[in-house]
Specification:
CATH topology: Aminopeptidase
Order of helices and strands: EHHEEEHEHEE
Radius of gyration: 16 Å
Number of strands: 7
CATH superfamily: Gcn5-related N-acetyltransferase (GNAT)
Largest sheet: 7 strands, mixed
CATH class: Alpha Beta
Length: about 170
């Protein structure tokens, strides 16, 4: 599989991955599948703000997974912190795709002078927690019963990776 930069041409494959995750898991605290318009808006925001959308594609051109990041909080003092996400098509899970995507996302974040990457992970998602720990992320907090899905309360755990960030951070916003 090869790493790629996803473009709006990948929108339908990304939407399919998002929607499978929404409908079958607690990895996304959403109830309804995303529409093509929602994905188009999502891509516009990513491109406008120079947030990468990294993909992993098979030799046949099938998108096996993707990863991206965006703002952690919409506050000027948090401009060096991002919240990332990684999603792998169910057919390709357990094959190292998530690890490759997160590794590439860390490289992208480092190149953009990100200082802290945050992963917000459902407490029951043992695979994602293990992946993040393997990639050097550390547990930094949690919120009990932060969400409700599939008839139960969900606990949200936060994992962080501290990167060098900018050599001269701008504290003026």
């Amino acid at each position: 599989m090869k790493l790629i930069r996803c473009t709006p041409d990948h929108a339908e494959a990304i939407r399919a991955i998002f929607n499978e995750v929404i409908l079958t898991s607690t990895a996304l605290y959403e109830y309804r599948p995303r529409t093509p318009e929602m994905i188009a808006d999502w891509f516009q925001v990513k491109m406008k703000n120079r947030y990468p959308v990294i993909g992993l594609e098979t030799a046949d051109g099938v998108l096996a997974g993707f990863a991206s990041y965006g703002p952690f909080r919409d506050r000027p003092a948090c401009k060096y912190t991002v919240e990332h996400s990684v999603y792998v098509d169910q057919r390709f899970r357990g094959q190292g795709c998530g690890k490759r995507l997160v590794k590439e996302l860390i490289a992208e974040a480092s190149a953009q002078d990100v200082h802290v990457m945050i992963g917000a992970i459902d407490a029951s998602n043992a695979a994602s927690i293990a992946l993040h720990k393997q990639m050097g992320f550390t547990h930094c907090g949690g919120i009990k019963e932060a969400g409700f899905k599939f008839g139960r309360w969900l606990d949200l755990e936060f994992y962080q990776l501290i990167l060098p960030g900018p050599s001269h951070p701008d504290g003026n916003g």
